[in-house]
Design goal:
The chain has about 325 residues and is an alpha+beta fold. It contains eleven helices and eleven strands. Strands 1, 2, 3, 4, 5, 6, 7, 8, 9, 10 and 11 form an eleven-stranded antiparallel sheet that branches. The longest helix is centred in the first third of the chain and has 28 residues.
Length: about 325
């Protein structure tokens, strides 16, 4: 029995040695390919920015859903639009604006639209009698996004005016530095921030009775939040709307609505900051550790690449 046991252990040991030799042979045969791939990964890592590595949720905001326009701007989201609990915890006090309790019940509408997350909340401020509705809707299906141009007529409204507005972002600390450091040479390019954000505008009316008098007139501002190409295909619409006078100028409520949206922006996004690649951050850190890390990252792929020669010389 003892001899049989020793024989089995010997066979197992022999099998393990053979497996190790096969692994070494495989490593030797493909060491150059592995080394080159490792070197490429190191280059990609060192010349990427921290936000690219940490995946901070870079997105674009735009006035159109299906295509990129000159209004598009890179941002980093502060809110998880796909998390219902997170959206319900969205601030109920924004500057001088306070949420009216309770939130609108959107369960039935969300199910009808096939929306993943839907928040609709009314805000008001003490210095005025205005009430503004905020809608945040996310879905991974474009069919959920009935554009307000389509949605309001389906609800019995007539479109009185279509246009675009520039919303001034009140909190200037939101922007910090622009995506590019040279303002004058980059004006008009994607990602440039000049203090305002472009949004779509609608003015809609609803008529009632035989006289056809206007019973409901609203100013609507909205825009879309789109994932970057390498992320999942989720879409978000941010919309604010408010009642306007039935006739005459609506400039007063338009300005109040733009002011509200300008206050909301810093709660939703922050501008993407200009970042240096990891290589320069480590190299210019003033620490020996940073330079050692760079050296090690380069040496490991080289060691793998030249492993057959190193092994041969040792033998």
């Amino acid at each position: 029995m003892a001899k049989e046991k020793e024989g089995r252990e010997g066979e197992k040991k022999k099998e393990k040695e053979e497996e190790r030799e096969e692994l070494k042979d495989f490593f030797v045969e493909y060491s150059r390919i592995i080394g080159l791939l490792s070197f490429a990964l190191v280059i990609i890592l060192l010349f990427s920015t921290p936000s690219m590595i940490l995946a901070k949720g870079i997105k674009t905001i735009d006035t159109e859903l299906s295509q990129a326009t000159e209004d598009a701007m890179f941002v980093q989201t502060l809110q998880d639009f796909g998390n219902n609990e997170h959206m319900l915890a969205f601030p109920k006090q924004i500057d001088e604006w306070n949420a009216l309790e309770p939130d609108y019940n959107t369960t039935g509408v969300a199910e009808t639209l096939g929306a993943d997350v839907m928040l609709m909340r009314a805000y008001s401020q003490p210095k005025s009698y205005y009430s503004i509705d905020l809608l945040i809707l996310q879905s991974n299906a474009r069919s959920s996004f009935h554009s307000p141009i389509v949605c309001y007529p389906a609800l019995g409204y007539e479109i009185e005016e279509v246009g675009k507005e520039e919303v001034f972002v009140q909190n200037v600390s939101w922007a910090g530095r622009p995506l590019y450091s040279t303002f004058e040479s980059r004006k008009g390019e994607l990602g440039y921030f000049n203090g305002t954000v472009s949004v779509k505008k609608l003015v809609v009316v609803k008529r009632g009775g035989e006289s056809g008098n206007v019973t409901d007139r609203r100013v609507v501002l909205y825009f879309y939040v789109k994932e970057e190409p390498f992320h999942s295909a989720n879409f978000t619409m941010i919309r604010v709307s408010a009642l306007a006078p039935p006739e005459g100028s609506y400039d007063g409520i338009l300005n109040v609505t733009k002011e509200f949206l300008g206050d909301v922006f810093p709660c939703l996004f922050e501008m993407q900051r200009e970042e240096e690649p990891v290589f320069f951050i480590l190299f210019n850190s003033g620490s020996v550790v940073g330079k050692i890390v760079i050296g090690v990252l380069f040496l490991v792929p080289l060691a793998v690449f030249f492993y057959p020669q190193i092994r041969k010389e040792k033998r």
